[in-house]
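[job 4471] stage=fold_predict status=RUNNING
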Amino acid sequence: MNRLSHWRAPLLSLIVLLLLIGIWHALTLPTTSKQTVNAEYAALVGAAAATGQKSTFPTPADFGAKIWQHLKEPFYDRGSNDKGIGIQLGYSVGRVLIGYLLAALMAIPLGFLIGMSPTVYRALDPFIQVLKPISPLAWMPLALFTLKDSSISAIFVIFICSLWPMLINTAFGVASVRREWLNVARTLEVGPLRTAFRVILPAAAPTIMTGMRISIGIAWLVIVAAEMLVGGTGIGYFVWNEWNNLSITNILTAILAIGLVGMLLDLMLARLTRLVTFPE
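[job 4471] inference complete, writing structure tokens
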């Protein structure tokens, strides 16, 4: 009975997947009633036809064939506008990790300071409340103007969007540490630095890791939009370039890849959270 219960969820997921594929296949069957298009779309279709590309929505079979094609050669490089999806994902993941780690190096120590000092909290809170609601992409023009480099500008945007969840969660976790534990540390004349590492950090670790997990998800969302704006390389640029080529199958493949990489990043942080919170 227990073994049967273990397989219920995967079986249900498989049924839902097959149902969705069946609906997709039914909706993409060729019909004669889909001949009416507006002038703009007709122009796009004409452009695609001129280049020999398929402009209709792909069937599940088309999608599967395209995935297999990308899996066979994910890292090819035939020029600036023709790189494999593996290379484009590599650029995006690299930018996310650099911006994310830089944000962690700043947010966690500053969050400790804010959480441990009510004076610092009151002094910095107005700045945090003003800067936190600003869309990360609103910083992109300023970053491009000052940094003069699209890739570094994208990393800066990732840094900005990753900063706030980690900073706020760290400050909250530190401020929520039980006073009794801190009083015991003072009674034992434990120094501030040792108190931070031996008392506060273990107690605040679950909240800090939650902030880090939220940040990685936001960073992965933002990098796609940022790369659409700056162009050049990355999975966001890949999606935009394939839209310009009217390759809907490649766009769907990129969307699937974005989702899978985002899931893997979240699973990695979830695993790290369990290791920190419940060390074996």
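[job 4471] summary: The CA atoms of residues 114 and 124 lie 8 Å apart.
[job 4471] exit 0
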